[in-house]
Amino acid sequence: MSTATPRPSVLFVCVHNAGRSQMAAAFLTHLAGDRVEVRSAGSAPADTVNPSVVDAMKEVGIDISAETPKVLTVEAVQASDVVITMGCGDTCPVFPGKRYLDWQLDDPAGQGVDAVRPIRDEIEQRIRGLLADLDG
Q1: Of 33, 46, 78, 99, whose CB is crowded by the most CB atoms within 10 A?
Q2: Residue 7 · residue 80 · CB < 8 Å
């Protein structure tokens, strides 16, 4: 009788859910496949994902053009094992028993692709580290 361990669940949160959290969710989905449940949300979601972010992710072979910013819900936080915030400050709800990480990253809002690339690359490195930790 096999006892399958439940998949870890990770929620990425930034204010607009249009840049950093979208890139992080896309990298984790891309690198982990179905080993990790991935969510992203924003405390004040934008109408669309930042076009420079879409272009920067396309450069590394990940298409997020169909993604849409989602509003942060208490349910999403409660359903997640790890909550990674990216500049949402006090607007992120905190629940006991959750693992919280706060990633200090530049905001790609209003930036061109040249400014988004280093943020994208930093997020990819952090995701690879997170994945190694989750797989550990």
Answers
A1: 46
A2: no
**pLDDT tens column, 49-71:** 999 999 999 999 999 999 999 99
Catalytic site includes residue 14: yes
For residue 12, give the nearest of 96, 57, 61, 69 by alpha carbon. 69
Return the structure tokens found at 102: 């706060």
- Catalytic, out of 26, 92, 119, 127: 92
Using alpha carbons, select from 31, 111, 123, 45 the residue that is nearest to residue 84. Answer: 123
Exactly one of 41, 57, 72, 88 is catalytic; name it: 88
Query: Which stretch of 2-11, 97-106, 113-122 has the lowest confidence by average pLDDT?
Result: 2-11
Which is catalytic among the residues 10, 11, 13, 14? 14
Q: Where do the H-state alpha helices sit in the chain?
A: 20-32, 51-59, 74-78, 113-135
Q: For residue 22, how many other CB atoms are within 10 A of its CB?
A: 28
Q: Decide if 113 is catalytic.
A: no
Q: In the predicted model, is pLDDT for residue 131 greater than 90?
A: yes
Tell me whether residue 64 is one of the annotated catalytic residues.
no
